[in-house]
Amino acid sequence: MENRIVLPDVYADCSKEDQLISDLDPFNADNFFGENLPTLNRIGDVGAIYTSFKPYFYNKQIHGMSRLEAAAATRDAGMVASSLVRHGAPIQEFPDLEEFLVTLSIMTDEVPADTVISYGPRNPYNGRMRTFTGESGEQLFISCVIEGMRSLPTAVAALDAAQEFSPTDSEFSCLVDLAASNFSAMIVSITQVSKCITPEYFTHKLRPYFEPKIIGGKTYLAPGGAQMPVILIDLALWGGRDNNPQYIRYWNENVSYLPLSLRVRTQKIVRSEPLIDKVAKELENVKSFGVSQRENVELALGSIDKLIVMLQKFRYPHLRIAEENMAIRQKGAVGSGGYDTEVLKLLIASSESARKKVQKLQQDLKEN
Fold it and tell me: Is the pLDDT score of 61 beyond 80?
C-alpha cells in the first residue's frame, strides 16, 4: 500500500535552521558569553556589560550578514539587552544597541529580542552555551528547554499533515500518534525542571533576567514557555475559535514570537478544520461507515484522547511550578511570558473541555 504520509518540509527546515544558528558565533564572542557576561552580571556592572560588548557589535558589517547570522546575532545581543534591563538600565540608554537590534529584526523578520527559541534551541548545546549566570542550574534549565523542544516541530508537523486527511483514513490516527510520541520529550523536560530547579533558584536567580523590554518604541516579552509552538498543537486539535478574549490574546501574541516560517504556517493551521471538529463532522455519517472506516475513526479518537492527556501531563506540572514560584513573589507578579497563572488554568480548562468532547464522540460511535 502506498504511503501517503508526507510531513510539511517547513518544520524540518525550521529545526535545521535552529541547529545551524546555534553553531554560529557572528561576533566571535564565545569567550565574552562564557566568562565576561556571567561575571559582570554577578556584580551588576551595567556600564561594563555594555562597554565590554560594544566592540563586538559596533563595527560589525551587519548588512553583510546572512539571515541565519542575523538570528544568531539577535540571540547574543538580546541576552546582553536582557542583562542590562535586569540591572535597571532600559535599552533606550544604549541607542547603538537598540538600533542594532531593530536592524537585525528587519533582516530576520523576527522580533528584535531574545525569545524562548533563541534561549533554547538556538543556544549552543555545548561549552559555548550562552547563560546569564554561568551556573550549572541555569545550564541544566537551558538543556531541559532544548531537549523538550527538540521534537516539538515534528509533533506540530504531524498534526498539520493530519488536517489533510479524513479521520476515516488510517493515516489520520498514525499522524496523531506521531505527534504524541514527539511531544513526550516535553513531559520529560518539565519533570526534570520540577525536580531540579527550585522555585527559589528560578525566582531569585533566573527570573530577574526575563523582564519585558522596550525596543524601537514597542514592548517585547521576555523568553517564556508561552512562546513554544505547543500553542500550535492546541490550534490544530481544537482551533482558535475560543471566544475568551484572554485566550485569543494569548495565542495571537505568542505566535508573533515564532520564526517567520512557523508564523506563516500557523495561518494554514488556523484556516483548516480542527482535528476534533473533523471527527465530529465525519460522525454525522456514521451509519454509512464500512468496517475499516469505523475502526479508523475509533483509532483517531483514541489517538486524539492520548495526545490531550499528554498535553495535560505537561501543563499540570507547568501550572504547579508557576504557582510555587508565584507563592514566593510579590502579589500581582507575572511569569516571564507576561502572564499570571490564570492563563495556564485557562489552557488546562480548554484541554479538559476538548477531552470531554472527544469522550462524547467515542460514546456516540459506540452507540451507533
Answer: no
How crowded is residue 321: how many other Cβ atoms within 10 Å of its Cβ? 20
Q: Provide the 3-class DSSP secondary structure of residue 261.
A: helix
Query: 161: part of which helix (H) or strand (E)?
Result: helix 152-162
E strand map for the chain: 213-215, 218-220
Q: Which three cell numbers stand for residue 142?
A: 537551558
Whole-angstrom distance, CA of residue 142 vs CA of residue 172: 34
Question: What global pTM score does this model have?
Answer: 0.93
Q: Is 302 exposed, middle or buried (0-12, 13-18, 19+ CB in 10 A)?
A: middle
The answer to whether 174 and 107 have CB atoms below 8 angstroms apart is no
Q: 80: burial class by Cβ within 10 Å (0-12, 13-18, 19+)?
A: buried
User: Rounded distance, CA 337 to CA 222, Å?
Assistant: 6
Q: Tell me the pLDDT tens digit for each residue of 253-293.
A: 899 999 988 998 998 998 999 999 999 999 998 889 999 99
Task: Tell me how crowded residue 249 is: count the other CB atoms within 10 A of its CB.
Answer: 12
Query: Helices then strands (H, E): number in the chain?
Result: 17, 2
Task: Decide if 158 contacts 174 (C-beta within 8 A).
Answer: no
Task: Report the alpha-carbon distance of residue 248 to residue 82 in Å, rounded.
Answer: 27
Question: CA 57 to CA 53: how far, in whole Å?
Answer: 7
Hey, what's the cell of 346?
A: 485557562
The answer to whether 22 and 124 have CB atoms below 8 angstroms apart is yes
Spatial distance between the Cα atoms of 231 and 237, rounded to a whole number of angstroms: 10
With a cut of 80, say whether residue 46 has pLDDT above it.
Answer: yes
Q: pLDDT of 221-239, one tens digit each?
A: 999 988 999 999 999 999 8
Question: Measured between alpha carbons, how far is 77 from 114 in angstroms, rounded to an integer?
Answer: 8
**Sign of the dihedral defined by the CA atoms of residues 143, 146, 151, 156, in that order:** positive
Q: Give me 51's grid cell.
A: 562597554
The Cα 118–Cα 153 span in angstroms is 15
Determine how many CB atoms are found less than 10 A away from the CB of residue 116.
25
Can you tell me the distance from the alpha carbon of 280 to that of 286, in angstroms, rounded to the nearest whole number? 10
